[in-house]
Amino acid sequence: MPFLFEKLDVYKLSLDWVAQAAQIAAALHGTTLSPLADQLVRASTSISLNIAEGNGRWHKGDRKQFLWIARGSVFECVAIVQATAGRCPAESHTRAYTTLESLSKMLTKLIQSVDSMRTTSQPTPATEPAQAD
User: Fold this and answer.
1) Buried-state track 82-111, b at ≥16 Cβ within 10 A, e below 16
2) CATH of residue 96
3) Is residue 129 part of a domain?
4) 52 near 3, Cβ under 8 Å?
5) pLDDT at position 72, please?
6) In a domain? residue 132
7) pLDDT average, residue stretch 9-33
8) Taking the model in full, what pTM does it have?
């Protein structure tokens, strides 16, 4: 049985983004922008890790905090992609920006859905925020 977060489209897209970010980072290694390449890999990985960890939390506040961190990592990736735009093909930059924009919107909707979750006295593992598309 898969974990509940594995069913989330935003989680699946975050994993796709990790692969995209790795390609961008590979193109930057060996240049003066190598430190940004390393940071891009860390920030991109942070997105999926925080989505997973947040969905393992019982309390809405905890869950939201991890989703906010994931969203912040998206914005960090945007800044890195913009700063390195001249070092990667334009199509790669456009695809990265589009993916990051989608992740940002999906995480915003997921955070909003956590806000609208009803509070129960005893949370259950089956409790899952609404799917954000």
Assistant:
1) eebbebbeeebbebbeebbebbbebbbbbb
2) 1.20.1440.60
3) no
4) yes
5) 98
6) no
7) 93
8) 0.83
Give CA separation, 133 vs 41, 58, 86, 102, in Å. 24, 23, 31, 9
User: Alpha-carbon distance 41 to 23, whole Å?
Assistant: 10
Return the biggest CA–CA distance within the chain.
54
Residue 125's closest CA among 55, 48, 50, 49? 55
Exposure class string for 44-53: b at 16+ Cβ within 10 A, else e: bbbbbbbbbb
Q: What is the number of structural domains in the chain?
A: 1
pLDDT tens for each residue of 39-61: 999 999 999 999 999 998 889 99
- List CB contacts of 91: < 8 A, sequence separation 6 or more: none
pLDDT band for position 17 (50/70/90)? very high
- For residue 102, give its domain range: 11-115
Query: Hey, how many other C-beta atoms are within 10 angstroms of the C-beta on 8?
Result: 22
Q: Is the pLDDT reported for residue 125 higher than 60?
A: no
pLDDT digits (tens, 9 = 90+) for 75-100: 999 999 999 988 878 888 899 999 99
78 in a domain, yes or no? yes
